[in-house]
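Possible regression after last week's pipeline update?

I re-ran a chain I had predicted before the update to compare outputs. Posting the input and the new output here so someone can diff against the archived version. Not blocking, just want to make sure nothing changed silently.
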Amino acid sequence: METNKNITSISLKEYAEESYLNYAMYVILDRALPHVGDGMKPVQRRILYAMSELGLNAGSKYKKSARTVGDVIGKFHPHGDSAAYEAMVLMAQNFSFRYPLVDGQGNWGTQDDPKSFAAMRYTESKLTGFADLLLSELKLGTVDWQPNFDGSLLEPIILPAKIPSILLNGTTGIAVGMATDIPSHNIQEVLDACIYMLDNPKASTKDLMKFIKGPDFSNNAPLIASQEELLEMYETGKGGFKIRAQWLTEGNDIIINALPHQASGSKILEQIADQMQKKKIPMVVDLRDEGDHKEPVRLVITLKSNRVDAGEVMNHLYATTDLQKNYRANINLISLKGSPRVFALNDLIYEWLTFRQQTVLRKLEHRLDQVDDRIHILEGLLIVYLDLDKVIHIIRNSDEPKKELMKAFKISEIQTNAILEIRLRQLAKLEQIKLEEEKGHLELERAELEKIIKSKARLKTYIKTELKEIKDNFGDNRNSPIESLSEAKAFSEEEMVTSEAVTIVLSKGGWIRSAKGHDLDPSTLTFRGDDSLQHFAKGRNNQSAIFFDSGGKSFSLAAHSLPSARGMGEPLTGRVSSESGVTFMGTAIGTESSKLLIANSAGYGFVSELSNALSNQKKGKAFMKLPEKAELLPPLPLEDSHCYVVAISSIGRMLIFDIAELPVLPKGKGNKIINIPKPKLLAGEESMNFICLLSDSSTLQIHSGKRFMSLKLKDLENYISTRAKRGMMLPQGYRKVDQVLEITTEDEAAPE
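New output (post-update):
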């Protein structure tokens, strides 16, 4: 069997690697990443060139977009028409491009729905005046040309851009293993930076940021970033920033009149409506889209009342909707060397200025060649002008007039061809003065061109003059203000709940519920079966309710989440994970700085802030360390007016001492309140059953069976001592205490 010697074999691995690399380079260079020179991707460059070839400049009439797309895909870009048309649409949308390159007529989409543009058979287009800055020097010897995909035509490898288009309009793109995200900027700021760098080639990014304040987009939505963040982004070529919607208030309405770049108003309204449906923003009662042609963006958010803080509502919406969007920057593009690179701001502007100097130099050299050629021809015309009759005679009578003219007048072939191409009538009418005037003007132009070409300083001055002229013609003010604001924060559940007075009720069986107001007597509530009231606490429904079990653990629940007292409530064990065998002893509610007196049946206790008992865990947190055989007592809220602690044991001993003797602790065992002998505690013979707090003006009420006695502070002098004493025995008949209460002046004044 014969083998073809022209066929070489390679491994599948080598073939796959080479093929993938070729594909990757194609995507990077020919699809996804723009060139630093003109800021264009290949498809964009081909669209602009095709439109210029069709004569669709800013001063021409509109033509159907389908005509342009047909030329693009038929002559230069052999891909789908939809891809080419979408690229064209983007260049026409003033909300996508800071400075649009295509002037569109018809439906080209809206900011709310950029993809809603009409089909290309319905729309018309031409180039904008701004696009001329990229195309005007195309035929002036400024760029290199390459064959199109089938070799039938030539297309420019790059456009001779007079401005750093990549910074002005920005771009996004995803290649193989890399991406680009370049934000748009203001033309005045960018050109000022370019002019500065021409004079100061070693300028740093920080120097250039005196002119370029930051990205600039097509609407007035503020850009949120600090100067430090922007400096880092421009120095490294990577970073990010935020854009927030712009808003104002009219009565109870929040009016949003500018959205983040490429944010959808309808999507934002859907996001807000979803939150309204889920009752996450009860202060918002209505939503409307009042946008029209005159005012494309006008979203109205109606608040419940003018007492609602609009700023706080917007801060929540910034955190939960597209009213605030994050944008990343990755200044990755094709350098003059033909390879992808991440640029710092100063490197990017320096690279583009290098490109511009090369382009201008080529333009000037091309013009110099044209001037030299014309002067050469004029010199020939001036020579033959001296003897026109002889010229006419040679042309009429000679078989080879070209050779005869060259020999007779000692002129070049080029000069001779120019003479022969002139009609005899024109030749006879040649005016020597006009020829000499034209030659003189051209010689002056040549001298000026040579000066600029030979001098780097003059070349820079030429470019600066050009940039200043562009700035005067196309410059505009910055749209996007730059603000350094606090982070957006969504409402917490508690913040969304209106503050109302509530009473938290805990039953002996561990059932919980919440009643509105503080006037309720919890003992009058109906309980399940033989269940009864264990403890209650008064607070607000936007606070956390804390529950304590007999083992010394604390558990936290949002007060507004508790079941209503209109029913029987629900078991606390369904909300928290408590250990088996424990019972729930008490509850507390208040601000995080509220103080509690925590004690146990062994006679130990301490003062603590409510925040120390809060727990986000379902299993709670260990709060009070209990001695053997001891149980936690219901906590007591400690007011500033409270001065004394009252402790009563199970055998009827009572001790009163100054509250200042107890330590303030975050958690732990605490100090001894009343002396309960350990053997008696372990044997179950004695324990501390009750504690109470008194102020100087309050009354101590002790209940025993159906009897009770009320004692003022002066009546209690015999019981007042220091902490950790045994205390004194209560009078006969009151030693079996059922309840101990502090009666304040307000309680005494309250009706029965």
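Follow-up from reviewer: compared with the archived run. The chain has a mean pLDDT of 89. Marking as no regression found.
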